[in-house]
Amino acid sequence: MYIPKFIPLTALFLFMMTSCSQPADDPQVFNEMEYTPQQTTFCLNAPSDAQRVDVRIYETALAEQPIRTVSLKCVGEDRWRATVEGDLKGLFYTFDTGHGECPGTFAKAVGVNGRRAAIIDLSSTDPEGWAEDVRPALETPADMVVYEMHHRDFSIHPSRGSKYPGKFLALTEPENIQYLTDLGINAVQILPSYDYATVDEARPDVPQYNWGYDPLNYNVPEGSYSTDATRPEVRIREFKQMVQALHRAGIRVILDVVYNHCMSIDGSNFQLTYPDYYFRKVADGKYSDGSGCGNETASERPLMRQFMLESVRYWIQEYHIDGFRFDLMGIHDIETMNLIRQEVDKIDPSITIYGEGWSAGQCAIEHERLAMKAVTYQMPGIGAFADDMRDAIRGPFSDDNQPAFLAALPGHEESIKFGLVGGIQHPQVDMERVNYSKAPWTVQPTQHVSYVSCHDDMSLVDRLRASFPGIQTDELIRLDKLAQTFVLTSQGIPFLWAGEEVLRDKKGVHNSYNQPDSINQIDWSNQEKYQDVYLYYRGLIGMRRAHKAFRMADAELVRSHMRFLDAPSCVVAFTLDGTAVGDSWNHIVCIMNSNRTPHRVTIPQGTYTVVCRDGQVAAEGLGQVEGDVVTVGAQQALILHD
Ligand code: CA
Questions:
Q1: Do 164 and 170 contact (CB within 8 A), yes or no?
Q2: Does 140 share its domain with 237?
């Protein structure tokens, strides 16, 4: 069992007696403020030898002078505490350990721009019916169709017709929820929605944009997505309303969490409360920068690890979050990720965890300890984004202009097959011919996030334009559909970037993290313009969700019941045995062809119903074929069943 270094047994006793009164088997060492109408207790993790630890209490979020300053006492190793008598509700506070004021590391409510923490009664932020809110059922992560979205991208364009453009509340509006359920997705992964630094919440009328990978307060919703960032309870209530509305529609909410770095070291709440503790350093004393953002946190250190555990638990318990996407998970250590999985399992094993199994630079810790994609098999129940299949389909992240399978370039088939099986060992996948991975990296296919595009890259449309100079719209549409057919027939977790279904583009911008709405917004008039594309996506999503054979969710089942067929270059063909997994379709044949010519493929003899052909999907069928040879058209997928 893991015991944080700052609560050895003697200190643990002291801690139990004097801390913000949590049971010993459920330590909440980051519980920094506990309010009752009679008194408020402040706690902070700061070095035992700090010269002072003060809490300053303010009338408002912006008042110049505190109305009180109270000194905390050291009550255990690295543990400080003070109790202030009286009813402090509605007031604000900061901690000061001599390095500058901050709202602490674990503020649960903050004023505008997150500079001061707020004393509120959290239970008053629950929307009506919150106690009855339930997590939509989920048997396996393979049953999810994840839709990655940003609050502004989704609802800021007038074509969305949203009453709350760019706000949490946009995802409570019936028309917007209806859009998601019509499309058929059942999980949204929302770009950072905790309080981040760059957008000035005091200027809500000025259009400002950021993805939000610049964390400020990890445990408070971002103010600019609320209707009033100056009232601390509003963002909390509206976030909960959003979760509640999505849950009512059967949609799970996956939070994008960015524990791997802070906006900056100097101004970070970590550094201001406990200098140099939370960040890794390299041998010469400089800060390591595995995130590419100037710093990297040290998840292997007890306080940082505990912080992540408590933060994840808090989002689940207070906000009813259903899953987590760990940004640059490869910066965190394997042990921490496994501890988080165990902690989450205690609450609900169906809560999903996956992340980016890479870092953005070298980390100052032994490489073999890092939660990289290649060692996903060491983290049961935790998934990783699959760049193998992504790049095999559309070309590498590092070069927007370089195409791959979609351009009928041979040699990418094996990497795609590896993605289709969900990154597991499969007798028909030759790992020697897979682009990046020389060994299977998952134990279960549900650890494999299958995708061709996401926020931090070109949209698929832009990618196709960049890698196919002069491409015409009809060809672009054919290839776009073909690309997503792999995603939605993969045994991994299918992941779609919002708006791809209406051919969203970003005017060619790759890293659009701080670009204006004009680049990032989704123009929903495209839905009508490219209705055929929308219907194809919707059709495939519906087909996957209706047929268990596409989501067997178990490596042994996939190895036994997913068979690849001999196929020409730039054609990938496989069968799924539906009877073996209780599917209403007995056998399914999927054939994907990126060649500019049709190709014949030998399939098991039978009479089949065609459900996908010529860029159309129809569960009721598009005709019949008989025999043991079929022709797959140029640049398209053919899906049959008997
Ligand atoms: Ca903010």
A1: yes
A2: yes
